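Protocol step 4 of 5: obtain the predicted structure for the target chain.
Materials: sequence only (see below). No template structures provided, no constraints applied. The aim of this step is simply to have a reference model before the mutagenesis design in step 5. Sequence pasted as it appears in the construct record:
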Amino acid sequence: MATLKEIRKKLHSVKNVQKITQAMEMVARARLKSVQTRCENARPYLKELKLILNNLLATSDDLTHPLISEREVKRVGIVVITADKGLCGAYNNNIFSETKNVLSSYDSKNVDLFLVGNKAIQHFDKKQWNIAYRLNEWADKITHATVEPLSKKLMQMFLEGAFDEVWLIYTHFNTIMTRTVMREKLLPLALPPVESEGVLTSYIFEPSEQQIFNSILPRYCSSKLQLALFESLTSELAARIMAMRGATKNAEELAYTLTLERNKLRQAGITRELLEITSGAEASKSLF
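Step 4 output (structure tokens):
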């Protein structure tokens, strides 16, 4: 049985952990609102790019580009987006589980991994899979300048035939309570279906439709990647909030249990001392 000193020491440690988890939850909650706003603002841009592509495809039947060309799949590139840090529940493990399912369909010689996040780098660093790209400490750097080098590398390797497909594995934000691990094809780009209703076909293009098409497709690819990063960061913060909330609650329950145990030991000690004093007093009376 633990001594009173040991229980007091453990209770002190639990209360310190509780303060840390509360602080981490507050920080994640404060960051979540800002990142969620940026995520929501990124969606309309991608939607407008889809609309422009839809208009272009509706006005011309012969638009082509290597980024949309399907070919026999021999090699693939897989972008795995995880957190840089832990303490966010099963967030990273869920991504690794989905990645494992995807990788089980391929030979390690035919896969290039593009890892975003320290956790992904640590997880795959000592495994047999080829790592073509590493990006860590990315959470506060989701800008066009940060995303462009990765998107350019993916598009360049795809155009050079280094691989025939590129897949994204990331976490889609639903609500603060729920998130979904997504497996989404990035390249070749899947163009939106052509919708003839509401599309104006009397455009005068300058430069030509093909030149505009060639200019927009790389931006569309970069925007999809950037939105996936925003979705992942929003999901990570939501997962951390829930994990820290649960840890704080567990710390409160453990502190309550330890407090009861401490009080019982203190009461038992006081009772024992009273008995010793009473016994000593009775013993001293018998001497006289």
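Step 4 remarks: Residues 24-243 form a domain with the Pyruvate Kinase; Chain: A, domain 1 fold (CATH 3.40.1380.10). DSSP finds five helices and five strands in the chain.
Proceed to step 5.
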